[in-house]
Amino acid sequence: MSDNHDHGSNGTPMSRRRMMQLLGATGAATGLAGCGGQSAVETDTQGDGGSDGSDGSDGGDGGSGTPESTATPEGFESTSMASIQELAYVTNQTLPVLPVMEKLAQSFQATDDWSVPSADSEKMQVYWPTSWLPRTGDWTLKEGADDERLTLAQWAVPADSQYNVWNGTNDGEARRMIFDRFMRYNVATREYHPYVISDWEVGESTLTLSVREGQTWHDGEPVTGTDVANHIKLDLYNSAGGGGIGPYVLPEGDMNAVPDRVQATGEKTVEVTLEQAVNEDILLSLLAPTRLRAYDEVYGEYVTALDEAESDEERSSALGELTEFTDAEPIGNGPFQWEDADSQRTLVSKYEDHPDADNINFQEAEYLYKPQNSGRWSSLINGETDGSATLFMPQNQTRRLPDHMQTALVSRHWGMGIVFNHDREPVDDVRVRKAIANVVDREAAAGNSAAGTGSKVAVTYPSGLTGEFNGQIEGHWLDGVADEFDTYGRAEQRTERAAELLRDAGYEKQNGTWQKDGEPLELPIKGPAGFSDWVSGVQTIVSHLQDFGIESEPIMQDSATYWGGDYVEGDFKLALQGWASYDHTHPYFHFDWIYRSGDATDYWNVPTEYEAPILHEELRDSETIAPDGYISDLATPQE
């Protein structure tokens, strides 16, 4: 069982709710676990930004919970920054979830036959190292090396893999070399760089995209604006208007609007009509990870059928044909082209006409069938594979790595957290949630979860903000206001403060156990047994609660039972889940996930309003706040 959990909230064109339903129905024990990409569905593209279940409303009728003005408050660089800090403060003071740790993915690179950047290089933060670094000439074969090809690993049986991302099953790992992304993104600098999309312009009502010159499909045909428009359209049709850029493009999710609102306006240009003005950072975050697949020669017929559908039934039928199509021998546009696949490996060869072909000095890459972590560990240790983009490897295994295998850490802007069912006593009481936060030593939990690898970083300020690994929280998002935030004891157990909170909530300690009305305070924590690093983390948390006098135990279940049963049914008081929006850096996505996602509203039952102290009086004048309005405003352009 792998345990890298790349399911996140943004991992697939399929809705998060649908993914949970499928897991429950099929009993897929490994459905949500993945070391760098294994999951029940495609985890490599970002989809709904954690907004599953959100109606995109503006926060209600203009009451006290709605931002007062879009004018920039005095002393702030933008309204957006003030709103981010205010939302972070509300999260910190009310704890709708308890962020415990941020994940740093381990990434491995062999340096015996290969020249690669150093482990601490910024280039390692342009996420997915094994696919991006070769494209930019930063992963090259050394002169005189014995190796002939770059060897990596894949989860699914190669011969069973296919490359239609809208099919949703067995998307071949070689996609990373075969298809190019719209843009590159550096998680350390928060910068976007052109790739398939060479230029973009975001206006108040229009998004314009330009296709890179010289980009061709592997049959020699040029990549066109039509191909890019095709892909955007298919994503919109597949998301039913509720994910990706859908809320910003389609009026009230109207699928009939897709043909008019997404059009190729030239051989190399695409124009997308926006339903509302959108913060450029938000829009690019949703577009950048897209791997261009929708070659008109292959997918044009499906686009035409969907564009011309005259009823929901016709559209559903056309979408069914798309999702059933198996693309076993893909025509790609990346630096490597598909050659063949058998039961043990997928082979791809260098495509000499790719714009970046001159950066690559090896002719082949192969993906070996390695369906278990243990097999991947052995392959890195014995030199069978040349690296791994991400893979959780405990210290007892990393010690066995040869000297030439380096390990880098890549931020995922995500990590294990405790989520509360706000419809269940006693965690519907903020004083109880705060007591839990004060009891837990997050540094100890993160350290034990990381198993000596340094791949987990304890959250300093439980606030919904990510960037712990490089100082972005204090140095950027909370610049000047960090002292106003409660740490709840990052690396300590504040038991006296926790006791004060519980006594205030009506509890008293008798015979070493906290009780109320003669009943002990019981707080079991449910989670997925297959996530071994989470298991270690929650065991630490449970021990802290027990030592303090709270009755607690870890209830770790198989993936199908947990994700498809207790979790989606809200059958828990405390449960384990990622607390941030996977792989996104902008706080909008994290707050959207915490307060407005389908998970938050349907499984955690978070309230729509909170009572929280005011951080910025320039922004609000009431301690009653509805986060929805502030989150919606973050998605719009700010002064």
Features:
about 650 residues; alpha+beta; Dipeptide-binding Protein, domain 3; Dipeptide-binding Protein, domain 1; 3 domains; five-stranded mixed β-sheet; 21 helices; about 20% strand; globular; disordered N terminus
Can you walk me through this structure?
This protein has 639 residues and is of the alpha+beta class. Helices cover 30% and strands 18% of the residues. It contains 21 helices and 26 strands. The protein has a 5-stranded mixed β-sheet. Strands 2, 15, 16 and 18 form a 4-stranded antiparallel β-sheet that branches. The longest helix has 17 residues, at 532-548. It is globular.
At the fourth level of CATH, the homologous superfamily of the largest domain is Dipeptide-binding Protein, Domain 3
What characterizes the major β-sheet? 5 strands, mixed
CATH third-level topology of the largest domain: Dipeptide-binding Protein, domain 3
Q: Using only CA atoms, what is the Rg?
A: 24 Å
| Share of residues in helices | 25-40%
Q: Tell me the number of strands.
A: 26
Number of helices: 21
Round the mean pLDDT to the nearest integer and report it. 87
Low-confidence stretches: 1-77
Distance separating the two termini = 48 Å
> What global shape is seen?
globular
The first-level CATH class of the largest domain is given as Alpha Beta
Which structural class best describes the helix and strand composition?
Answer: alpha+beta
Work out the count of structural domains.
3
Portion of residues in beta strands equals 15-25%
